[in-house]
Amino acid sequence: MQCDNNEEMFPIVEADGSIIGAATRGECHSGSKLLHPVIHLHVFNSNGDLYLQKRPEWKDIQPGKWDTSVGGHIDLGECVEDALKREVREELGITDFTPEKICDYVFESDRERELVYVHKTIYDGEIAPSDELDGGRFWTKKEIHDGIGQGVFTPNFESEYQRVFLDQ
Q1: Separation CA 11–CA 19 (nearest Å)
Q2: pLDDT at 4
Q3: What would the mean pLDDT of 113-137 be, rounded to a whole number?
Q4: Beta-carbon contacts of residue 157 (< 8 Å; ≥ 6 apart)
Q5: Sequential DSSP letters for 34-66
Q6: I need a labelling partner for 50 at 20 to 30 A (CA). Which of 39, 101, 111, 164 fits?
């Protein structure tokens, strides 16, 4: 059975993104609230539908929930742009896309704190979800709105979607 690598090293950052240290995935996800950076990419098709990934049951956080198109940690020594390209390639097999930066913010749950760099893109090409995911599909705005608060999506996705895209 697959599992997350709890020894993977992440940068520890201030809210402005400046690196102040390093810690393992296990330390960052243990309730320590060590602020670590992640990237999110929301992949829309030209019809305005949003691709969501299904988190596999083996994930250490929010297993089995629908989540942001692409989400991943920024590795120690990696910049935001490189992490974004790497995660999109690894998770969805997409190499030719044009990201648009939307915002960044701090997300906090009972287990972790993340500095989230949010991007979006419009993409109508082939999507090939990797075995890091339990598949994915495009969702209409109505489907997303109907699912919010129903335990279908990760709390992070719901919060971000409502913050960034609800009025669009």
Answers
A1: 6
A2: 54
A3: 95
A4: 52, 65, 66, 67, 68
A5: -EEEEEEEEEE-TTS-EEEEEPPTT-SSSTT-E
A6: 111
